[in-house]
Amino acid sequence: MLLFFGGSLYMSLRIRKRTENADGYMTGGGRIGFGISAASMTATWIWAASMYASATSGYTYGISGPIHYGLWGALMILLIYPFGRRIRRVAPKAHTIAEVMFARHGRSSQLMLAGSNVLGSIISLTSNLIAGGALISMLSPFTFGQGILAIGAGVLLYTLWSGFRASVLTDFAQVCAMLGAVIVIIPVIFFAAGGPSLFETGASNLTPQQADFFSSDAFFNQGAPYIAAVLAYAIGNQTIAQRLFAVREDLIKKTFVTATFGYGATIIGIGMLGVIALYAGITPVGGDVNNLIPQMAATYLSPLLLCVFFVMIIGSLSSTADADLTALSSIVMADIYGQNVAGKKRANPRTMVLIGRITMIVAMVAGLFFAGSQLNILDLLVFVGALWGALVFPVIASFYWNRVTNLAFSVSVVVALAAFLPVRFEWVELAGPVAVVSDVLSTIGIGVVLGLMAFGFFGKRVALIVATVATLASAPFTIGFLHTYPVLSGSLIAYAVSTIVCVGLTLPSRKADFDFDLIKQRTGDFDSVDTDELNTELLQLTETEKRLSAENERN
């Protein structure tokens, strides 16, 4: 741990500036290259919680569990680039999606996105600390509490200095270490547990659904909710948006396509540890599935490979934890202080950096506090994804449809959340007419999700066809059935209700069409130092050109 976090701190200190630039602290100035960006996106999304959750899915649902988890998670990254190119075109120098929503609509839509991301990043940070604490308590004499404290301090120490620039630079080193460890560790554990013969000797440990590659349990409980959450994470998550605003605009597609393959292969591979544990008949220590991965490592790996495994997990959780810290700091810097407290024209860049660092400290303390509860990681991820699901259609529509109003945006999100919560947490009994209404809305939600995916790649006409066909084709099978899966139903209802309400309030609106060029004027750099220096250089060049021109005329 000292070697890992010490090395990360050394890298951070090497790039530290005497006077930190506020925009660089949030997005690296929007000039990050392909290699660093792709590695950072891959490392950020290969977080310890996703590794643990993929293994949990494999242990719970069998061999199809990790495939459903990793495949749809990879699709989420792929879906970023078509929408991402539009977002960067509209707001080339923004720092957060919430900041763009402030320029597009106003304060209420901004605070909705900012608030959901504060909640999401703290939950993500908490999940990573839980994963690290479980690892350390399993493989060392330290307790769970001591483990999360050590990891929290290590991540905070190297991220605090240079913010986002430190995060992406250390991500590059961490993803190299992670991928190398995965290539070695998974085959070693597989053969140590019995190799190919394990699938014969351990088959009796599986239920028929777990043994079925096309398991309906795995699809409706794992795959389908993640398909529904794909767009939510792609559009609503600030850790992704931050990398979208940081990478050079011409490298967006290449960056996110590369990260798609890196994430999918790694997470599906890690999830197979859960499948191996299922076939081997292993029971998680203390009945806690969060202990499954470190338990497999402790059982089957030599001390040397345990060190390699430790680096893999610590690297994965650190890469996402520092991304959560930088996401939270950018939200507080840009959306709370920069837009709502000081105002964009009066915001002091040095004060912004100080606020960003204070935010990181407060966020880490909150994450350590919540990590003590040791919540189930899989449930946390599904819950946050569904929350962002209520924002997906209003956000996407706001970048393409110039008639969407602040009222339509805000009301649609609130109503969608009000419909989602009772279904997701089963506060109402899904029976009789309530079940029918739930199924109808969920079926519409299927059409919305698939239609939005098609819209990103193929445009509006194809999207409308796909949405209509998907809704009508699935209706005979889903109505009367889908309400038996409240997690999936809640997510789909959030999509459907937000879309219906947003469209319903937008169509009758008589307000003038919005000019998207205004977003470029209302967003941009907070720190004017670099701009002033550039303007001075341009002025000097202009004067030189005039002098040379005058001399040429005299000659």
TrEMBL record:
Regions that span the bilayer: 32-55, 67-84, 111-136, 142-160, 172-193, 213-235, 256-280, 300-321, 354-371, 377-400, 407-425, 431-455, 462-482, 488-507
Keywords: Cell membrane, Ion transport, Membrane, Sodium, Sodium transport, Symport, Transmembrane, Transmembrane helix, Transport
Catalytic function, reaction form: L-proline(in) + Na(+)(in) = L-proline(out) + Na(+)(out)
Membrane topology summary: Multi-pass membrane protein
Subcellular location: Cell membrane
Keyword Acyltransferase: no
Family (UniProt): Belongs to the sodium:solute symporter (SSF) (TC 2.A.21) family.
Designated name of the protein: Sodium:solute symporter family protein
Organism annotation: Microbacterium commune
